Structure formats: C-alpha cells, structure tokens
Amino acid sequence: MMSRATPPTRVGWAFLFALRRESTAFLRRLRFTQTLDAPCPAAMYQSHGGPAVVVETGLGAERAAAAIRWLLDNFEPRLVVVAGFSGALSPALRVGDVLLASEVVEPDDDELHWRTSVPAELGDLPVGRLVTVKQLVATPAEKQALAKQTHAVMVDMESAVIAEACQEWHVPCAVVRVISDTAATALSPRLVKLLSSGRASPWRVLATVARSPRSIMELWRLARDTRVAARALATALTGLIEK
Hints:
By secondary structure, the protein is of the alpha/beta class. Helices cover 37% and strands 29% of the residues.
C-alpha cells in the first residue's frame, strides 16, 4: 500500500468516469464546490447526501490507474463508484440498461477477478459479471467470443484496475455501468479510431466525416445512444447519493 504524506480527506463518495459525456447528466444534479489539483480533471461536488469527489480518468487502464492512485492517496471515500458506459455482451441488454457488476474479470487469466460492492441503495438494479479489456470491442462476433470466453454480460476498459486498487486499499468499490451499445452493434474501423483517443474533438469528427460520409449516420446513432445512456446512469447514481 502507498504511504500518505498528509491525512486523507474523508468524503462520502468518489465517482470515477472515463469520459465527460458519461458524467455530464449526473453532474447537473450536483452543486459544484471546487476544482481539485489532480493529474486528470477532478472536482468536489455537494449533494443532498453529502460531499463527493468526481474524477474524469480518461480512457483505458493506464489513465484509470493514475487517477485511482491519486484519489486514494488524497481522499478516504466511504465508497468508490466506477461509473460510465459499457458495451453489452448479452443479447438481452438494451441501450440505457443500468447494471451493477457482481465481479470484474480480465480475459485470458482466471486469477484476475475482483468482487465488487452492491450498495443497498442500488439493490434493485440487475447484476452481472463485467470484463475489462485493453481495446474497444468493435464487432458482434468479437463480443460473442468474449462473452463465451469470460461469461461476462458487459465490457469496459477501466474497471479492473480501479477495483484492484480499491481492494489493495481496503476501500469498498461499486461498478455501475450503463449499456451504450448492444451486443449486435458494430463499430466501423474509422469510428473505433476516433473513439480510442477518448476525446473526439470537432475537428477530428469533421475529418472522419470528410473521409467517410457514411459515418454521419453512425455518429448520429452514437450521439443518440450515449445521450440515452447518460440520462439513465444519472438517474441511478442520483438514487445512490440521495436515498
């Protein structure tokens, strides 16, 4: 375990999102109090249930690892909540479905799995296994193969490293994910390249459309589905901190 230079600040919750578009709808329901000096975007917010730290880790395990190390070195949350979008591996899941991860696993290693917390306030949500991978899973065939290999119902790119750190620090960790693309959804190579950076600037979006006009419909679908997903996630997380 890492040593702390100063006593940590106690807070009720710490929320970690990979991307801003995952958290925007939720943050509208909180009151901003201050920006924090962190290696990634981070701020304090106030809710009816008390103070919360919200961190935007960036996409992928490396960025998530740096964010959770900073968080646990500076704060002592009652509960860490990993939240954001997830791809469905189960055909039964639809865009906007919110789930709790019963455990987090990594492919190709049966020993890499972490149990997660199930907060009583979210006890009505369905639960299922989540697998964390290094790259976006782009095709229905890839999703089907991953589901068969891991028995997971959803996939992301950050939860495993955060759950591992929380286990090391003996801090409860819940993983709340909302489905933003179904098991039948395919992502084109151009869209995968655009999304892999984590931050799709307007110029990069325009460049993608210029090279492939057909991508307009795919981008429109992505914007629609992530908007639906973000609103559903905000409702679930609000129930966690205000009950």
